[in-house]
Design a protein that fits this description.
Largest sheet: 7 strands, mixed
Order of helices and strands: EHHEEEHEHEE
Helix content: 25-40%
Strand order of the largest sheet: 1-2-3-4-5-7-6
CATH superfamily: Gcn5-related N-acetyltransferase (GNAT)
Length: about 160
């Protein structure tokens, strides 16, 4: 198993993961029919870095890291993580989140913030809390879940320096 920086060619393997997750509408605030070229821009061009989790030559997960705000807020980064449905429950999200925190520190970030975590995504919320993130804000009924209707979105934050 290896986490490495993604190349442009990796998007051929990232795209099915992105499409699968975005199309469910359950965890990301992306249009459920996000086209491939827009997904490429969102996942590969906009972030400062994108990584893939690879096992035996197969990409099972991916994450990006981006500066959350410019100017006085540029010491805080944001990340997004996606794991293929056939690889869930194997600790990939944990590994990628831990890796992203190390990379963030190397890139000079002092904190990491998740801007919009659907409260209905209970496994992610539990994992982020286990990894030291705190819910610092709650946006009432900000996420329109396709099965549960309007649910809260959480802002989660972790100071990375000791």
């Amino acid at each position: 198993m290896e986490i490495r920086e993604a190349t442009e060619q990796d998007f051929d393997s990232i795209w099915p993961i992105f499409r699968e997750i975005a199309s469910t509408g359950e965890t990301y605030a992306y249009d459920r029919s996000t086209p491939r070229d827009e997904a490429f821009e969102l996942w590969m061009e906009y972030p400062r870095k994108t990584f893939v989790f690879e096992e035996n030559g197969e990409i099972l997960g991916t994450y990006y890291i981006v500066t959350n705000h410019s100017g006085p807020g540029d010491h805080v980064c944001n990340c997004g993580y996606m794991v293929s449905s056939n690889a869930r429950g194997k600790g990939l999200a944990t590994s990628m989140c831990e890796h992203s925190q190390e990379i963030a520190k190397l890139m000079g970030y002092k904190a990491m913030q998740f801007n919009f975590v659907a409260s209905s995504n209970e496994s992610a919320v539990r994992l982020w809390e286990k990894l030291g993130f705190e819910s610092v804000g709650r946006l009432p009924k900000a996420f329109n879940h396709p099965g549960q209707g309007f649910v809260d979105a959480l802002v989660m934050y972790k100071w990375l320096e000791t």
